[in-house]
Every structure is written in structure tokens, then in C-alpha cells.
User: Fold this.
Amino acid sequence: MSETVKGFNLAAALAGVSKLDTSGGTQRIEYIDIGLLDGDPRNRRDLRGLEELAANIELLGLRQPLRVRENPDAPGRFVIVSGHRRRAALQRLVDDGEAEFARVPCIRDVPAQSSALQELRLIFDNLDTQPYSDAEKAKLAARVEELLYLLKEEGLEFPGRMRDQVAAACKISAPKLARLKVIREKLVPEYMGLFEKDKLPEQAAYALARLPEDFQKRLANALPEAPSGSAAEKVLKKYNEGWRWEPELQCPDGKSCKRGDTFLRRDCEAKSWESFCGGNTCCLECEKAKASYFPCERMCSKAKAQRKTRKDEAEEEDHKRKQKAGRKYQKETQIYAKRLLPAIDAAGLPEHTKIRWRYDDFEVAVIRQWAAGEFNDPAGWYETKLTPQKFYDAPEVARLLGCTTDFLMGLADDFRPPAGTEQPPQDGPAPEADGTEAGEDVPASEETTQDVSNLDTISDDEPEEVPARRIRWESRGRTPPEGKTILTFALNNDGPAYRPAIWKNGQFRSPNGKQVLSGLQYTQWLEVPPPASGEEFQLDLTSGSPPEPSEAVPVGKGGRNGAERSPRRQAGTEWAEFLPTWMPGGTFPREPCEVVADFRVSGGTGRPEASLRRVCWFDGMNFLFKRHSSKIDAECVRWMALPSVESDVSKLDTTEEECV
Assistant:
């Protein structure tokens, strides 16, 4: 029989040693009763995974016969050379009543006179039956080397180096065999036990084994767990460079530093990208002990106390900063709370009533405390509460407080609805003019019964309805109103251009009235009505791009000021004749359009905030400087949608009329 293992031909090596094995013959498979098969006491493999192997044999049958030899100490019985796990799995099947597996197919091995050869054959036959760990390979290599030396003493000659023959016999590379030998011979017992239990990787074991024995034991005592392979290699490299982790440092009290093993542990636990300490820097001076994030966990107690002091000081400064910012938010909240109290009192809301405002529900009692200046720690305040314009359901809040939405938006100072628009109480029927409730029967009497057939149904005292002044794009031939802010439009080679101006004393002037705008080029103009609050703003209306042409919406009943409501446009907006409405920030147009908007901008160092007005484009989500341009990040205070510009100037009404 010829056995070849990675260049190592066992039969060829034994060919010249006739005294070891002179028998010949072909191999034959014969069936032997399982009770006559004995295990070899020299078998080093444990019998794991028998359940899975037994199930596989039961399903597919025994695919590989056992290799056995005659037992010299018990005639008629056989010793297993290869197949101990297969025999144990077959025995399980037999014990479970599967009698057909009691007869086991076996190959009877050629008897050998040398026990070393028999054991070597046992090792060869079991190499592929189950994987070996690194520790098992190290033991196996040591035993194979012993057996080959025994065979050599018995007369067998091996060409080349013995290490190469052992590596080929164990099916591992020569360099790996050399590493395993170093581990087997030089690793201290504290780490060898972990290596044999497969809890210490070969990389770490090989690096540790090349350290002196006393230093290995020092590591084992200093570390709760074995170092990783990369950490062990770094320690070995530094040790070869002269590092010993024995610091020559002095503490502030003059005593010598005795934390060498702590430094050693710190370096073994360091991340792969972190540098080693080595005990060369005092913890009080080390940057890792001062770091705000991921500081060294092995710093001394003095460094920990120092770091805690600095951390507490930084937290105190941060708390003061937050308190300063929070006081500003609280003062602003107090102003808004005082502003709401008259409406709350007029509505007669109980103290526990909650008012929905943006993300939170605020109780009336809390709003009263804020109005009185009663607040908790200002460091916990990150924004102003009760800010106008910032809530989800303005009509619902207005109904609850009995005020107008303009008041909530900050566009009006009086919370009371205009005369004639008061809503009836929500909790019951509205009282009639005579003091009775709606639906209540009024008894007939001489005082209450009268003929109303001839009464005039229109009261003489009822004020006549004043039609809303319509503001639209006017032709250049129309004279602008005196002293009113207007927006001019011209289409030039660079696209649409807008400029603000004031018509005063027969000439155009800048919005502040200081500069005469001579030679102003425009084709149309539009009056920009002031916001309801009457605030004055710095004007900076630069060029934008007009909205897409849109079909005119007919004027009729149903919308604000008589404008018919469009399903996609804001009520009161129609593009033939425009009824402008300033809308608060926090709300948005219903579709992309050109708008004139006021933005809150910083006044710079030492200067207050200011509002900047400009023409911009709303793309459906954000306000842009121009169409297809960049986003405006400033806070929008208010905005007003602009009607589309009539491209055909000839269609504009040029009849001169009084502009008020």
C-alpha cells in the first residue's frame, strides 16, 4: 500500500526496511461484528458530533469502511486504526434497534512489527476525519516527531530535514510548525492552558512565547485577560526596543511612581489606533487624561481629581451660558404671556385649561406664572414660548380665546373681533335680541305683537359696506398713489427686474424718500400695502423672476373680499385683479409663486436685529432668492403673494383714475 502525504511517501520510506514489514497482499473489505472492534488506547481524538454522524449513516449508509488490525493480546478481536467516531455512531444505531448496522465493513490493515509505525499509521488515518485546533496540532507535531525519531532509530532513513518531514506528515506548513514548536516549548503555563483550550489565538501565543518567562508571568498577573494578537506583538516590539514599563517619574508629593503594571495594562488594552504610553509621561501631564472625550481609563487618582475639577468648571460655564440665553427666552415669553392674559381673562378659561401652542400644551395657570415672571432654571430654556405665528391650529386657539387670528399672529394688538363679527358662545344657543335663547317660545302680548309687514328691512344706522381697494399691476401710463410704496417691474436682457420706489411730488424717490430715482425704467407697477401692524422696515427689494402665467380667477361671491376661492390658491388671491393679504411667517403659499416677504436678519456685532424686505420665489417648500436659485435661510416674518405680470402691456388699463 502506498501512502502519500504532501510529498512524504511512507511506503517509499519503508521500502528498504524489510524487517519492519515483510508481509504483502491486496486490501479486502470484510464484515466484522461490531462487538469485536476495540478502540486504540493511543487515539487522541474525542468523539464529538455523534448524533449528526449517526443520522447521516442511517440515511446514506456507511460510505467509508473502518481500518482495523488484529489485536495481538486478544485473538479473534480487532483494534481500530481509523474510524473510532464511525464505530461509536454505529454502536448508537445498534443500541437504538437498528440491527442491520451490527455488521461493520472493515479493511484489515497489514500487521506491523513496530508500535511506532502502528501509532504513526493511526495518526495518518485520522488526520482528515476531524479538524484539529492549533494546540492539538502542536501536540500532534510533537508526537509525530517522536515517532519518526523512533523509526529512524529502528533503521528508517528520512531524506532532508526532520522538520519538513513532520510538517508534511501533519499536513501543515513548515513555518507554522516552527511557530507551534516555539509556543509548545516557551509559552508559560498561565497562557498555555488558554492556548490548549483554544482561548488564546496562535498570533498572541507566538508573540507572548518570544517574551522572557518572567515578563510573561508579569503580563499574566497584570492583565485580567490575555492580550490580543496585535497588542501582544506591539508589546514584544517595544520590549525588544528596550521598554520595560518601569516609569522613572515622581508624583507631586515627591514619591516615585509605582504604577508600572498599570501602564502595561493600559497599553495592552489600547485600541489599535492608539499610541503606547509605556509610563514615560505623568498622568497629570498626559493629554489623554485631559481629553474631553474618550479619556484614558487608567489615569491615576490625582489626574482623575484634576480632570473632574476641570470638567465641573466647564459644566458650570456651560450652565451659566445656558442660563444667560434662557433668561432672554423667559423675558420674551413673559411679554407674550402678558399679551395673552386679557384674552384669557375675557374668555373666562379655568386654570387647568390647556392651550395648544406649537409642540406643547400650556395650562392657563402656567401662562399666568410666566406673565408674573415666575420661571424655573433658565438653563433649561432653549426657545421662546407662546411666540406669535408658531402654532398648528390658529382658528382653534382663536375660538378658545375668543380672539382674532390676526392677534395670535402678532398682526393686531387688540384681541377683540371687529364690531359685528362676534361669535356666539360655543356652550349653548345664542341669546336673542330680547334676552331669550334661540328656540325658546316667546309669549304673545299686546306689547310684543305688532304688524311688521310695512317695516323697512334696512336700518338707517347700518354702515354702508365700503368695497375693498383692489391693488394690481398697473401700466406705466397710470399715476402711482402719492407717498405709497410701490414695486416697479421691467423685463430686460438679464430677466425681470424689480425696484421699490415712492411717487412723491411728481417724481420717483427711494423708499426712505431721501434719494431721487431719475430715469427709472419700468413697464408696470404695483402698490405694496403696509402690514397691519404698521411697522416700518428696511427695504431691499431686488430682482426676482415672475410666476408662471396663470388663468385669471373670476371675481364673485364665496371668498374673502368677494374673491371666489380657487381650489389651489389662497382665498382672496386672483390673478386678474389682486387683493393682497400679508400672511404671517410659519404659513406658506399653497403653490409656487412670486412673493414679497420680510425676513428677520442679524444686525451684526452690537447692532439689533432688523427686517429685510425683498422679492423672492417660493418653490412649494422654501423661499429662494430667485427661481432655481439658493434657499433663503433667514426667518420669514411675513409674506404676500404677487400676481403674475401681464406680458402684453397693451392689454393693461391705461385710463387715469384717482389712486388712494
In short: The radius of gyration is 49 Å. The chain has 17 helices and 20 strands. Residues 274 and 606 are 45 Å apart (CA to CA).
